[in-house]
Amino acid sequence: MARNKTKLALRVNDDNPNHHLWNNRGVWWCHLTVHKNDATSERLRFSLKTRDLESARDRRDRILRDIAEHYEVAA
Predict the structure, then answer these.
(1) Full pLDDT tens readout for the chain, 75 residues
(2) How many helices (H) and strands (E) does the chain have?
(3) What range defines the domain where residue 65 resides?
(4) Residue 38 CA: distances (Å) to CA of 14, 29, 49, 65
(5) Is 75:10 a contact under the CB 8 Å cutoff?
(6) Domains in the chain, number
(7) What is the model's pTM?
(8) Domain of life, per the record (predicted)?
C-alpha cells in the first residue's frame, strides 16, 4: 500500500508513559497534533473507550503504529 504524501511529526516523550493521554471523567482519551506539508496543523482527539490506564496505553500505541504505517513520519 502506498503511503500518503503527508509527513507527520510524531513526538513521543519516553520519560512520560502517558504522553498523548488524558483522563476525562474517568475515560482515557488520546490527543495529538498532525502537522501537514501545507503548513497547517490539525488536532486529533479521540476516546480510547476505556477506564483502564494500561488498556489506554496499549490502544494509543496501536493507533500510533497504524498512523506510522499509513503516513511518512518525519524524523
Answers:
(1) 555 556 666 677 779 999 999 999 999 999 988 777 788 888 889 999 999 999 999 999 999 888 878 777 665
(2) 1, 5
(3) 4-74
(4) 29, 27, 32, 23
(5) no
(6) 1
(7) 0.78
(8) Bacteria
